[in-house]
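cache lookup: miss for this entity combination. No prior model stored, computing from scratch. Input as submitted by user K.M.:
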Amino acid sequence: MRKLSDQEIERRKSLEALKEMGIDPYPPEGWQLSHTSEEIKAQFRQGAELGEVSLAGRIMARRIMGKASFVVLQDHRGKIQLYVARDILCPGEDKTLYNEVFKKYLDIGDIIGVRGEVFATRTGETTVRVKELKLLAKSLRPLPIVKVDAEGKVHDAFTDPELRYRQRYVDLIVNPHVREIFIRRAKIIASIRKYFDSRGWLEVETPILQPVYGGASARPFITHHHALDIDLYLRISNELYLKRLLVGGYEGVYEIGKMFRNEGMDRTHNPEFTLLEMYVAYRDYHWMMEMVEDLLEYVTTQTTGSTTISYGGHTIDFKGPYKRMSMSEAIRQYSGYDIRSMRTEELDQACRQLGIAPEKGWTRGKYIDELFEATVQPHLIQPTYITDYPIELTPLAKKHRSEEGLVERFELFVAGKELANAYTELNDPIDQRQRLEEQARQRAAGDEEAMQLDEDFLRALEYGMPPTAGLGLGIDRLTMLLTDQHAIQEVLLFPQMKPERPHPKSETEHANNQ
RNA sequence: GACUCGGUAGCUCAGCCGGUAGAGCAACGGCCUUUUAAGCCGUGGGUCCUGGGUUCGAAUCCCAGCCGGGUCACCA
């Protein structure tokens, strides 16, 4: 058995004592709720006659003063103070409920239901005078105790990232601002759905397990299907499936879902992350830029109340229209290099001067991409569209209608980070085949991240896909921006972690010895 | 992957010029019927991340490993 701490032993003793008194520490029947803590406080402040209220939540603090006590109860909307007085809780002769159950056997962390009237204390705090109290779930582990003083200063904050991410449930209990992040995340996603649905675009689900992975450049996770005896890949992108649906005749489709990329992890990368992908027929990337402006204005207003947000000390305004620059203009403006007239050797030299070490096999497009990342990207704080990318980097976008060697693509940059990526989609099946065959050659030459040739996707395109604008937008990054968080782990409920090493004296070991 | 910082009580941390551990909160016992970082008196609680090494003696010094943070690299 895992060695229990003194506090855990104490709580288990209380649990047994309660059972002996005939109190079920985990009763099945629940508790009728009349209000949330937030509703009680708001309505009482406005002078409402609340009468008796009934609420439930977790004990977060206890201040016992003999025959009366104050309790801080936390529910999903906030905290409220309870006043538990012996003779109000136990009007008769039997004071067991107060003296024994409440004072001795309840702890911080226990979940209780209470009923009583609302009043204001001497100091004016809205408080529930408890007439009825019931244990709903006993907590066997002590919580980290976070205290906030009169000036609002937080003491002993629970901040260790390892503990917070591994035990997110504890983080959510004791850190209200963390709960808020995930409420906002849900609002962001809900508002995107609302916006798309109102335009008649169809939300779809496409396979996560794919026999051929494509639509992006990344190493996949591989798994195995036993009945079929084939390897399957966790999708790195759903792009090729959504395009099949445009071939099928839907004129607007979108999917919000997890993608999986088997690459490094850091504060901006998690192996699984949430991407919005959407495709609309008979549109091009110019239209898409306007749509994204409109969408982001809507989402920011719906979730934050304004188009203006604060991110890492910058004030960022999502009100459109956003600045637009072609990639070559942007590089000229920020670095002085005119890549359009530069030969590959000159690009190589320019990169070396900037401290970038080129690798053999780099295409012209790769050099340009590197130059861009080093010289331009960090400066793009306000939402900015960078347009017209080198063709080599973008096998699924349509060739530029007037510029040789470029494709009709834009990326949206905010706070120096890529937020969205969009194309006028390539719907010429012959061109698409050539470009994917080029990718296949790069794979054969050892580029693990070049795309696989998806014959069924090409077959679909051969039936004819309408001209289409497509968009990918990182939901995690958008959430980071709208919550002023700088690590992806802060906007994922359960970020990927290395497993905890089982302790030598583990619980399972004990089980085996029993 | 490289470098770097960290891992000590349930939590937040101190101790780290080597002499086998401390504080606050939490817990336990007591007092207290409007407190709010409640207060007062008393008490208990530790594989000092793991494994080696140096030493009469290691939380402390050295080596290796594990986990996490940061920076860089890789990576649309």
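stored under new cache key. The CA atoms of residues 381 and 415 of chain A lie 4 Å apart.
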